[in-house]
Amino acid sequence: MGRRNRQRERLAAPSTDYGDEAGGVLTLRGAMTPKTREAYRAELAGGLDREDAWQRAVEFLFERLAVRWTIAGVPLEGQRDLLARFRVATPAERAAVRDALRIHLAENFPELPAP
Questions:
Q1: End-to-end CA distance of the chain
Q2: 8 Å CB contact between 101 and 115
Q3: What pTM, to 2 d.p., does this model score?
């Protein structure tokens, strides 16, 4: 059997589910490359507008860590779909995402500041 025909085992980053009060479940990836960590720090540092930098940092983390988001029983997967849904999320949904990201960072990436 040739090398091309062998199925290679692909490593998968661990993921964690976070539920919210409305019954939604956000699944976040448990691994982040060193370059992504540096890019996040740069986003959070921002420029002149601190609030804008904070919002961009939350979206950056969501884009890099979100694997799946189930809202009202409808699962969303894929980076494009997840980011599009996050951008139209209600304030309560955004707050739930921020809370999940803060908990996730504290548990998996304690060296990174939370948004």
A1: 50
A2: yes
A3: 0.83
